[in-house]
Write a structure and sequence with these properties.
With about 325 residues, the protein is mainly alpha-helical. The chain has one domain (about 5-100, about 130-330): Farnesyl Diphosphate Synthase (Orthogonal Bundle), CATH 1.10.600.10. Helices cover about 65% and strands about 5% of the residues. It contains 12 helices and 4 strands. The protein has helices at about 30-50, 70, 80-100, 105-115, 135-150, 155-170, 180-190, 195-200, 210-245, 255-260, 265-295, 300-320, and strands at about 5-10, 25-30, 60-65, 65. Strands 1-2 form a two-stranded antiparallel ribbon. Strand 3 (about 60-65) and strand 4 (about 65) form a beta hairpin. The termini are far apart. About 40% of the residues are buried.
């Protein structure tokens, strides 16, 4: 069982006014100031590496209650919490870079540069970043070395995951059904890789048989994360879609469900809320089934509880962060 050492419970009244509810626990790290300080330092380092003199602070991985890392990995040891905060911040910056280009060719070039720190052979990237490749590459390497120092060489397995994330986001993603969309978003949104990252931050490593055993318990939580992220980011995604003059419907679960089920925008939003709760209920059912009928270990129990906390924390963050607000993006 996961022992609570570094975190305190969050009163779910923090969700009041958002129209959102969750059946999952929510906790926050007691050393949230460490996460915020690390995030601020990464902001400076990223700005220096890319020559972006003024990055929009509203787009950082924070909400009024705390940093994303403090809510998603509330039982992370303080040293690793600082690293997790930097990595989540870094991924937010890169996500913004991948969202900005209008054309598929531009997105491909940005993706290749982020994934490899190298020029793509398929064209030119916009801006001055090519002249700064050594600074940018050094930033990437320093983050990787810090991860190895804190977590061991096992974290190197996530390099391939990071490249898959970049390349998925470079594609002109289209989906004709919610099921198809969710498969794409689990990779493109990084949700597929989050359990492993949390495992590294928590010092929890499952063997292959344990990962197989917990899959049906963890997967509904990943779906709930995708849907809550899309629920709260829908207006922002709609704005960016219109600004970039992209074809088709908005690449967001709300728009996909509205199209698939011939719903109004309001009813589609309600449908997504219902699907989030259904995913959580599926998780609870699968968890009880595993406890009663499957193999069970303390390691698996701690791993599952850590991801339950991550999902609850993601919900709260998505519901309250300025990053999801339209006015945080209206100057892009």
């Amino acid at each position: 069982m996961l022992r609570y050492v570094y975190s305190v419970e969050v009163d779910k009244s923090a969700l009041d006014g958002t129209g959102f509810r969750t059946t999952l626990p929510i906790r926050i790290h007691q050393e949230d100031d460490l996460a915020r300080a690390a995030s601020a330092q990464l902001l400076k380092d990223y700005s220096a590496a890319t020559e972006q003199k003024s990055l929009d602070l509203s787009l950082r991985a924070s909400c009024p209650l705390g940093h994303f890392a403090s809510l998603v990995i509330p039982e992370c040891c303080p040293k690793k919490l600082s690293y997790a905060a930097k990595m989540f911040e870094y991924m937010n910056f890169e996500d913004d870079q991948l969202d900005s280009p209008k054309s598929a060719a531009e997105r491909h070039n940005v993706s290749e540069y982020i994934a490899n720190g190298e020029r793509s052979g398929f064209g030119q990237i916009c801006g001055t970043i090519w002249g700064l490749r050594s600074k940018y590459r050094r930033l990437q390497i320093s983050l990787l070395v810090e991860g190895i120092w804190l977590c061991g060489v096992g974290i190197l397995s996530m390099v391939a995951d990071f490249k898959s994330f970049c390349r998925m986001n470079a594609q002109e993603a289209k989906a004709t059904s919610l099921d198809e969309y969710l498969v794409q978003r689990l990779t493109g949104g990084g949700f597929r890789y989050l359990p492993d990252f949390i495992g590294h931050m928590m010092g929890m490593t499952l063997v292959t048989s344990e990962k197989v055993a917990v899959h049906d318990v963890i997967h509904p939580l990943q779906i709930a994360m995708v849907l809550s992220n899309d629920y709260f980011s829908y207006k922002k995604d709609k704005l960016l879609h219109e600004r970039q003059e992209r074809q088709g419907i908005v690449y967001n679960a709300v728009a996909i469900v509205a199209e698939q089920d011939s719903l109004t925008e309001e009813k589609a939003l309600k449908s997504i809320q219902d699907k989030i709760l259904q995913a959580e209920l599926t998780h609870h059912k699968e968890l009880e089934n595993l406890k009663q009928n499957g193999s069970w270990s303390q390691n698996m129990e701690g791993y599952i509880e850590a991801f339950r906390l991550a999902t609850g924390g993601t919900h709260l963050w998505a519901a309250t962060t300025p990053r999801m607000a339209v006015d945080a993006h209206d100057t892009r």
